[in-house]
Amino acid sequence: MKRVFLAFEVPEPSKAAIFEVQTKLQRAVRSQFVTWIPESRWHITVQFIGDVDDVLLEQIKNVLHDVRPRSIDLQCWCVNVLPMHSSPRNLVLQFADSNGTAFALRDWWAKSIGHLGILADTRAWVPHVTLGRIRAGRQLMHEFVSETHVPKTLIHVRALTLFDSKLTHGGATYHPLSSIDMLA
């Protein structure tokens, strides 16, 4: 069994803008509250799928390769906490999808894997990169979030990738299983 999810990869040219936001937050937030996520683990999750066997994994890969490449641009929008209630666990950089192409792709994906018997996530999708995991002092995060300036940088999505996620004592590790070029 593999624990899989579909995500947009963060292209190298865009990592500097995201790193700048993370650095601002690191200066403002005391380290005992947050475990910072290294850029090697940054991605924009489209859908978490969960544990799948080898047969279902191959079917999911086939659906991935049915995706028609399209240009997807996401704009850095704001820093936020997720989930957005009294006990947030993630400090994130949220993106805007002004022309709706990322949302349209996500909807298509959910319908397509639904035919495989995989239930779509019914929560509202918030495209984001997780910058840190909140450990303690959760109620204090909202003030840092509201004070952090985010440059409205465009992220030109280049790849849509199916990842295998392995949980370890040092955090999750992600291994690409299959990918398509979104700029083809």
UniProtKB/TrEMBL annotation:
InterPro entries: Cyclic_Pdiesterase, Phosphoesterase_HXTX, RNA_CPDase. Its EC number is 3.1.4.58. It comes from the Bacteria. A motif (HXTX 1) lies at residues 43-46. Residues 10-72 form the Phosphoesterase HXTX domain. Pfam families: LigT_PEase. A motif (HXTX 2) lies at residues 128-131. Keywords: Hydrolase, Ligase. It catalyses: a 3'-end 2',3'-cyclophospho-ribonucleotide-RNA + H2O = a 3'-end 2'-phospho-ribonucleotide-RNA + H(+). NCBIfam families: 2_5_ligase (TIGR02258). Belongs to the 2H phosphoesterase superfamily. ThpR family. Hydrolyzes RNA 2',3'-cyclic phosphodiester to an RNA 2'-phosphomonoester. HAMAP family: RNA_CPDase. This is RNA 2',3'-cyclic phosphodiesterase. It comes from Candidatus Uhrbacteria bacterium RIFCSPHIGHO2_02_FULL_53_13. The lineage of its organism: Bacteria, Candidatus Uhriibacteriota.
